[in-house]
Design brief:
Elements: H1 7-10, E1 23-25, E2 28-30, E3 37-41, E4 48-53, H2 57-76, H3 79-95, H4 97-108, H5 112-132, E5 139-141, E6 149-156, E7 159-163, H6 171-183, E8 186-190, H7 196-209, E9 216-218, H8 226-235, E10 239-245, H9 248-259, E11 264-268, E12 273-277, H10 283-295, E13 305-311, H11 315-327, H12 347-362, E14 366-369, E15 384-387, H13 394-397, E16 404-410, H14 413-420, E17 425-426, E18 428-432, H15 436-445, E19 450-453, E20 468-469, E21 472-473, H16 478-483, E22 486-493
């Protein structure tokens, strides 16, 4: 039995049938076997939004079995047929963009315009892979024998699982579901416990678009339930691949659990991005990049600029410009007009940001603006600039995942490269400057999976998103992202002389 949805959503939404508070398995809305539920709150106001099912291993296994039964029929469908369903799903998302953004803002906290942009971004993945799924080409390879031919086919991995984070609760759903379904896989997906309502609303639109029962399943669970759900997804022999976006710590655990079954894995894990500003950079342009790469989503993105490295000659001008922009950031609840930054997701997130700022100060850093919880209370934190980022600080070694811009200077190109590479992570780095030779050399030398030059944004459905080192395995988006959901099959065809 579904439960009521909080007034913060119902008072703003047009299509109330998108407000789902049950899990989605085999085309049906279902609760936990024992009826247990957990609460979902608005991080900006603390209001109870809904209570959703607490799934465990038993319910998750049933979702996997539903995917197993749905797989043969879905895999047999033509790529054109699957493409049409994904395109209809994308069209439905765009036609319900405001309703979806309302749900997203309520449970995640980001400003409504930012949520709206994320919803449209989620539709873009469906559009992209609807087309890429029609271009799964194989090969005919010249053989060593005149009477034989070597064929290479690409086929879907099979039943697959996905686990998505709370910071981008719409885009991360379709970034996994779109290529999985386009490839002919059947998917069991667990959204983050903080943001299940967006996933369930997207599943409802997928159902309307024609996604068959069992091809897409959404299992929900609290933080306490996550280990049990994860063990079922990694241990069930029917599941042949796991895709996870989240912390490196959890990614390591899931990869270990997948090892016994030799499952294919895609892991998009933590980041610790260096943001390098050379002397010849435009300081105002670089500051706008910081706003996108640092304060967007209150700094709660894996691509956030975590270590801001500024060359000595431009440091003063850059810092002054950054202070002006930071102090102008308007903080508030996501539905307040003109707000640029919302709250942190929860109390532990706030505690971590406070701990990082205190550690920076203890190690010689100087807070130039912000540095404290916001006067709005709750989990709001002031946009912050700290001068003096020590390479012994927590902020140097860990993702802060909050609106703290920590700066240190460097002298030479070689020093910038060494500092940028002084991390176990390798997701993204940002470079600002106009010397093409310097930018090229630095981009080649920095050890990350992605480089953004003179822009604070790196994500796009057309581009391969992913990192190296402790930032993960595999790529999402682009033509390369589809290969993550496919297996190669080699066929040696003989007897051509008969």
């Amino acid at each position: 039995m579904s439960t009521a949805i909080g007034n913060v959503i119902t008072s703003r939404i047009s299509d109330r049938s998108l407000l789902r508070s049950d899990a989605f398995v085999d085309g049906e809305w279902v609760g936990a076997e024992n009826g247990a539920r957990f609460p979902v709150h608005d991080p900006g106001t603390g209001e109870l939004l809904a209570e959703v099912p607490r799934f465990g291993r038993t319910e998750t296994a049933r979702a996997v079995d539903a995917a197993r039964r749905a797989l043969p029929g879905w895999r047999r469908r033509t790529a054109i047929d699957r493409s049409g369903i994904l395109r209809r799903w994308a069209e439905l998302i765009r036609s319900h963009v405001d309703d979806l953004a309302t749900v997203l803002t309520a449970e995640q906290g980001k400003p409504f315009p930012e949520a709206r942009g994320e919803v449209l971004y989620s539709a873009a993945f469906l559009d992209w892979f609807a087309e890429e799924g029609r271009r799964v080409y194989g090969d005919v390879i010249p053989s060593h024998s005149p009477t034989e031919r070597i064929l290479v086919w690409k086929q879907s991995v099979g039943v697959v699982a996905g686990i998505t984070p709370w910071n981008l609760p719409a885009a991360m759903i379709t970034r996994k579901a779109a290529p999985a379904l386009a490839a002919g896989c059947a998917l069991v997906l667990k959204p983050a416990e903080q943001t299940p309502l967006t996933a369930l609303a997207l599943a409802e639109l997928g159902r309307r678009a024609g996604v068959p029962p069992g091809v897409l399943n959404i299992v929900t669970g609290s933080a306490q339930d996550a280990p049990e759900i994860g063990r079922e997804l990694t241990g069930n022999p029917v599941v042949r691949k796991l895709s996870f976006t989240g912390s490196t710590e959890v990614g390591r655990l899931l990869m270990r659990q997948c090892a016994d079954g030799i499952k294919k894995v895609s892991l998009e894990l933590g980041g610790n991005a260096a943001f390098v500003v050379f002397d010849d950079a435009d300081p105002e342009l670089a500051v706008e990049g910081i706003f996108s790469a640092k304060y967007r989503n209150a700094g709660q993105i894996c691509t956030a600029a975590n270590r801001i490295l500024v060359q000595e000659g431009i440091r003063e001008r850059f810092t002054e410009a950054l202070l002006r922009r930071t102090e102008a950031v308007r903080v508030g609840t996501g539905f307040t007009e003109g707000v640029e930054m919302g709250p942190l997701i929860d109390g532990p997130g706030l505690d971590k940001v406070q701990r990082h700022v205190a550690d920076l100060v203890d190690r010689g850093g100087r807070v130039l603006t912000g540095g404290r919880p916001h006067e709005l209370g709750g989990t709001f934190f002031q946009p912050t600039v700290v001068d003096g980022l020590s390479d012994e600080s927590l902020a140097w070694r860990e993702e802060t995942f909050g609106p703290v811009a920590a700066i240190r200077s460097f002298g030479t190109e070689e020093e910038a490269i060494a500092l940028a590479n002084d991390s176990e992570y390798g997701l993204v780095a940002y470079l600002y400057g106009h010397n093409l030779g310097q930018i090229w050399r630095t981009a080649e030398a920095i050890e990350t999976g992605m480089i953004a030059v003179n822009t604070g944004r790196v994500s796009g459905e057309q581009a391969p998103f992913g990192g190296i080192k402790q930032s993960g395995i595999g790529r999402e988006g682009s033509k390369y992202g589809l290969d993550e959901w496919l297996e190669l099959k080699y066929v040696n065809l003989a007897g051509l002389d008969r």
